[in-house]
Write a structure and sequence with these properties.
Elements lengths: L1 H16 L11 H7 L43 H10 L7 E3 L2 H9 L6 E6 L4 H12 L3 E6 L4 H7 L5 E5 L11 H11 L2 E5 L4 H4 L9 E5 L13 E4 L3 H14 L5 H11 L2 H21 L3 E5 L9 H7 L6 E6 L3 H10 L4 E2 L9 E4 L14 E5 L5 H13 L2
This protein binds pyridoxal-5'-phosphate.
Protein name: Cystathionine gamma-synthase
InterPro entries: Cys/Met-Metab_PyrdxlP-dep_enz, PyrdxlP-dep_Trfase, PyrdxlP-dep_Trfase_major, PyrdxlP-dep_Trfase_small
Family: Belongs to the trans-sulfuration enzymes family.
Length: 398
C-alpha cells in the first residue's frame, strides 16, 4: 500500500519532468477529431491504437525503468483520446480522463482552498450542486450561488472569492453566461476559473481561449455520443494545475477503463456530423414547440426570442442540441407527455444519437427553481419529422 503511494508520487514527479506539450496540427477541429490520436502511418500498422488491458508494465532496474510503472498511473489507451480532447480545447497539454464527469468535477473542486469561497451558478448540473453543498456542510469551503446569466451579480460575487465555476448553457435551464466578460474579470481578479463545457463541447465553444484556467467534461454525453459509457475529463494549459490533478487522479484512483476510453475516441470521431444534425433538428423542434398551444415556455439559445440568443450567437459557433420546455401546468402533464412518447425515450442523460426526454424536477436534488413541468429534451440525429410526429401526437393527448 505504502509502496504504491510512494510510486504514485514518484510518477507525478517524473511526469512533471517530461515535456508533455504536443504541437497541435493546424487542422480544422472537424479534421482533428478524425485524424488526431492516430498511430504513425506505417505499412501494416493498424489505423487505430489497440486497447491495452493490463494492470502493470515491465519495469525493472534503476536506469531505464519505464515511466508507466502501474496502470493506475497511466495507460496507453488513454493517450490518444487525451491528446485529441486537449487539442480540441486548444490546450497546451493533453486532457486527463477520469472515471466519470463527477470524478473530474470532484478533482476540480479540490482546487478550492481550505476555507475558501466558490462562486457557483444556481442551475449548475445537480451533481456539481450536490457535491459542493456536501463539501460546504463539511466546512471545506463556502458556496456563493449566482444567477449566471446576470453578469453584474456574478462579478460582484467574485469579490474575495477563490474559484469561479461556470456552466454555459446551464443544465437544465439553458441560461447562457457571458463567458468572455466573466473569464476576463476572473483573470484580472486572480480568481481561478473552471468551466463545465459538457453542453457546448469544444466544437461550439473553447473556454480556455477566453481565459478559463480549467475545463471539465462529462465525456459520457456528446463527446462519446452513444449513451454506452460513463467517463469524464479535465483540460488545462497550466502545467502545475495539470500535474496536481494528475496526482489527484493517481492517488484517489478514479481512473478510466481502457475499453471506455477506446469507445469515447471512436465516438468523438463523428462529433461534428452528430452535432450538425442534432442542432438542425433542435432548431426545428424548438420553433415548432414554441408555437404549440400546450407548450407554455421554451428555452433554446437558437430561438431569436430566447434571453441567451444574443450571447450564444457571439460566443458559440452553434446553439447546441438541448431544449428545455414546460408543458401544461403540472408535473403530471409533463409525466403524461413522456409516457405517451413512442420514439423518443424517457430517460435521463443527454448527448447521445437518440433523442431522450426527462422531467428534471423528478430528481429530489434538482433546485426548487426548476419548474415541476419542465422537460429537458436531448435531441438526437433521427429524421426530424419522425421526432416531431412523436412529440405532436403526445402533446395532443395531454
Ligand atoms: C452529466 C453531467 C455531468 C456529470 O457527468 P457524469 O459523467 O454523469 O459523472 C456534469 N456536468 C454536466 C453539465 C452534465 O450534464
Amino acid at each position: 500500500m505504502c509502496d504504491a503511494v510512494v510510486d504514485g508520487r514518484n510518477l507525478v514527479l517524473m511526469s512533471e519532468q517530461q515535456d508533455l506539450s504536443t504541437p497541435t496540427p493546424s487542422w480544422d477541429p472537424k479534421t482533428l477529431i478524425v485524424a488526431g490520436g492516430r498511430p504513425a502511418h506505417t505499412n501494416d500498422g493498424p489505423v487505430n491504437h489497440p486497447i491495452t488491458f493490463t494492470s502493470t508494465y515491465h519495469s525493472h532496474g534503476l536506469a531505464g525503468a519505464g515511466d508507466r510503472v502501474y496502470a493506475r498511473f497511466s495507460n496507453p489507451s488513454w493517450d490518444p483520446f487525451e491528446e485529441v480532447l486537449g487539442q480540441l480545447e486548444q490546450a497546451d497539454y493533453p486532457a486527463l480522463v477520469f472515471s466519470s464527469g463527477m470524478a473530474a468535477i470532484s478533482a476540480a473542486l479540490t482546487l478550492v482552498p481550505e476555507g475558501g469561497v466558490l462562486v457557483l451558478p444556481k442551475h449548475s448540473y445537480n451533481g456539481s450542486l450536490g457535491l459542493s453543498a456536501e463539501l460546504q456542510a463539511a466546512g471545506r469551503f463556502t458556496v456563493r450561488p449566482v444567477d449566471v446569466a446576470n453578469t453584474d451579480e456574478v462579478l460582484s460575487a467574485m469579490t474575495g472569492a477563490d474559484v469561479l465555476w461556470l456552466e454555459s448553457p446551464t443544465n437544465p435551464m439553458l441560461e447562457v453566461a457571458d463567458l468572455p466578460a466573466l473569464l476576463a474579470a476572473a483573470k484580472a481578479a486572480g480568481v481561478l476559473s473552471i468551466v463545465d463545457n459538457t453542453f457546448a463541447t469544444p466544437l461550439l465553444q473553447q473556454p480556455l481561449t477566453l481565459g478559463a484556467d480549467l475545463v471539465v467534461h462529462s465525456v459520457t454525453k456528446y463527446l462519446s455520443g452513444h449513451s454506452d459509457l460513463i467517463l469524464g475529463a479535465v483540460v488545462t494549459s497550466d502545467e502545475q494545475l495539470r500535474s496536481k490533478l494528475h496526482g489527484h487522479r493517481t492517488l484517489h484512483g478514479a481512473i478510466a477503463s481502457p475499453m471506455d476510453v477506446f469507445l469515447a475516441l471512436r465516438g468523438v470521431r463523428t462529433l461534428s456530423v452528430r452535432i450538425e444534425r442534432s442542432q438542425a433538428n433542435s432548431q426545428i423542434l424548438a420553433e415548432r414547440l414554441a408555437e404549440h398551444s400546450k407548450v407554455t415556455s421554451v428555452r433554446y439559445p437558437g430561438l431569436p426570442s430566447d434571453p441567451g440568443h444574443q450571447r450564444a450567437t457571439e460566443q458559440m459557433s452553434g446553439y447546441g442540441s438541448v431544449i428545455s420546455f414546460t408543458v401544461g401546468a403540472t408535473a403530471a402533464d409533463a409525466d403524461k407527455l413522456i409516457d405517451e412518447l413512442a420514439l423518443i425515450t424517457g430517460a435521463t442523460s443527454l448527448g447521445g444519437v437518440e433523442t431522450l426526454a426527462e422531467r428534471r424536477a423528478r430528481h429530489a436534488n434538482e433546485p426548487d427553481s426548476v419548474p415541476d413541468n419542465l422537460i429537458r429534451l436531448s435531441v438526437g440525429i433521427e429524421a426530424v419529422e419522425d421526432l416531431w410526429l412523436d412529440l405532436h401526437q403526445a402533446l395532443e393527448l395531454i
